[in-house]
Design a protein that fits this description.
27% strand, four-stranded antiparallel sheet, Methylamine Dehydrogenase, Chain H, 671 residues, 2 domains, Serine Threonine Protein Phosphatase 5, Tetratricopeptide repeat, alpha+beta, WDTC1 protein
Length: 671
Amino acid sequence: VFVLCCCVSVVCLPLQERGALGFERHYHVTDPFIRRLGLEAELQGHSGCVNCLEWNEKGDLLASGSDDQHTIVWDPLHHKKLLSMHTGHTANIFSVKFLPHSGDRILITGAADSKVHVHDLTVKETVHMFGDHTNRVKRIATAPMWPNTFWSAAEDGLIRQYDLRESSKRSEVLIDLTEYCGQLVEAKCLTVNPQDNNYLAVGASGPFVRLYDIRMIHNHRKSMKQSPSAGVHTFCDRQKPLPDGAAQYYVAGHLPVKLPDYNNRLRVLVATYVTFSPDGTELLVNMGGEQVYLFDLTYKQRPYTFLLPKKCHTSGEVQNGKTSTNGVSNGIHLHSNGFRLAEGRAHASPQVELPPYLERIKQQANEAFACQLWTQAIQLYSKAVQKAPNNAMLYGNRAAAYMKRKWDGDHYDALRDCLKAISLNPCHLKAHFRLARCLFELKYVAEALECLDDFKGKFPEQAHSSACDALDRDINAALFSKSDNAEDKKGGGPIRLRATGRKDSISEDEMVLRERSYDYKFRYCGHCNTTTDIKEANFFGSNAQYIVSGSDDGSFFIWEKETTNLVRVLQGDESIVNCLQPHPSYCFLATSGIDPVVRLWNPRPESETLNGRVVLDMEGASQANQRRMNADPLEVMLLNMGYRITGLTSAGAAGSDDEDSSEGQVQCRPS
């Protein structure tokens, strides 16, 4: 209380007035507040699932949309319903947005009836109805720089742009994903960069997230119309729907190669929500069927496992997904057919000593590893990595913990850590060996064999260790088993980038864009996103210090952004939490889901009794969600109906083969 009073008095001083808002937004979400976050109120008024929430710019109004086809505008600070109106939709509302610079008078809704409606709240009337989409409208996006313009994403694969100044009151197609991905593609979500409104991010079916330059698209189409030869094309003169450079793709590097396996298990990958960080430099994606990913838009990196057709591999081109002009990338010499370690025998490199407090954290992580507490070990190593980002040993140890835990995506994170460790210490023996094992687990069998052979050459004293022999046997068994990999590579291109049928045929332009995709920076694990396709993930705090996401288990999860560590889990719904919208300037969070209510969360007083909605066993909740994501869809449906499935054991959490118990210390034990 003393600290808060001091803060208020400082802000109220005349000399500090100019910086008051900045101070407030900088400190409104802090770690003590997060750890005291609890339920403040439930707003009741809807009669169906609440599928969307939206704050106005000031944060004194909250709009909600529901399956009951009504929208309600709330005074959340006083827990009051200000306005309720039927939107004119005939099906579930999936998106609601205040139109910028309209004085909070204009509200836009999109719904499952394929319609987009514009409402004037002052007269409680629907003033415009747009019926241009042919399938469910999932998201609406607005931009402060364009006050009369907004966009919609729908399951017909189209991104439409609307201008309320146009007399025709019709929309135009800004992006047609079906021209790139076939008729089956569905657009699920979109958002505009808050700092540069020319950039629009789109999430759709599949693991790829797209970032478009709206200005480039409009200029391209304007020039096409003004061109003297417009409308006159030869057979070979194909007009591109988008100009070169107008689109960038982002994907978690391990997902494309996992896609066939996911499809076989009826596990759907789809981006259910995308949003930019407040400063516009990061893109957050809730990937349905998988995890939450953060992409750095400034310091981009190519996926480590993107192996392009061998004929494309030349000096100075993309090799293993990394641009290289001298054959060196990520501390490893890359050849056109895979990974190759630097030539010559390895010599021990001096280790940089950690400060005492970080050494203690590392020892705690090692102890957790020894007790097979893999997640705890990962979180402790991550905490140390944040403070010592140039310590190879920490990356190598965390890679070992990822490989033991075996959750979805863990082997790819382990591969990334191995490459980072090798780049910091080219003689890191364990990281070299773990790299080969990761490649094998990620189904890059030939590359794993070459990496293992290079390891044996560089560390001959380890060539006949039990770990090397075990991995050698695994690789050779895979090479001489079913020729799946050979079948996958027929056609001269990576199987993960191709389509399987005529209706979802992928264009050559789409292939090129996918091959140029950028990888993620951070991954957030623990929640489950397999049941609904509107599940959100958001930045929490004006500096984006935290990440929040809903989950199929009725909880919502809060992670530290930089360490990716899970810090808080709260029960937000009796079934599923879909929506999480942080207040623009307070430590205040609105959530909704299957329950017909809106819940408000803020830091509770220290004098308040224990919060009954806190999930204390965060590790147990995370493990259960991993099992849920890898379960049979029928089992998940029964789980949602309240039945207990005894066949869901922890062994199924990883979705990968049992580890070989004969592996030696070169891989398993942390340093």
